[in-house]
Amino acid sequence: MKYTKLLGLLAVAAAALMAVVGTASATELTSPKGTKLGVGTVVKAENEGTIKLDGTVEIACQRVTGSGSITNAGGPSATVNGLPNLVEWTQCGSDTITVISQGSGELHSLGGGEGTLTSSGAEITVVLHRTIFGFPVTTHCIYKTENTHVGRAKDSSVTGGAATVEIGTSPIPQVKTDAACGENAQLTGNVVVTSPTTVYID
Fold this sequence. Notes:
Elements: H1 2-25, E1 29-30, E2 42-47, E3 51-54, E4 58-61, E5 63-69, E6 80-83, E7 86-90, E8 96-101, E9 104-111, E10 114-120, E11 123-132, E12 135-144, E13 148-154, H2 156-159, E14 164-168, E15 172-175, E16 184-195, E17 200-201
Antiparallel strand pairs: 1-17, 2-5, 2-16, 3-4, 3-16, 5-7, 6-9, 8-11, 9-10, 10-13, 11-12, 12-15, 13-14, 14-16, 15-16
């Protein structure tokens, strides 16, 4: 009898745990609130202030934009895929950043209108132009995301307006290029979602 009760309690505890896990892993985007953004929905974003890429030498860009089409709309046990990586980099001084492959962004809900954004397969080529001891020097570097943490997303219920991403990447690995390139690079700055105008993380 005692064993039967114990097994019953364990079953209840397991069910409760599964419910909690299922809730924690659920990720969906809605706009307006309660209306799910489905597969094919285009999400656009742009920088808010300077975006910096710091490898061996820091690059500062004043205009950065991106767009992505949702490929997985998420659900009770799924994340949202297909979110924009930053694909157009301009106004970077004498340096240039060109996107070789856009890759895909993935959002994991943290609850409370916030989430963590990761990137995979985004590949950029960087050309640095510097003058050292009076001589022009050009350095070519390539970096590629591999399930790289990009930053923390905050939805419209948190910001009171457009959804944002506070970028603070984990190291982005270097694809073997010039010896002067850093082993990895880190991206910092802020991005605001421009379309849809309001987005909620549910």
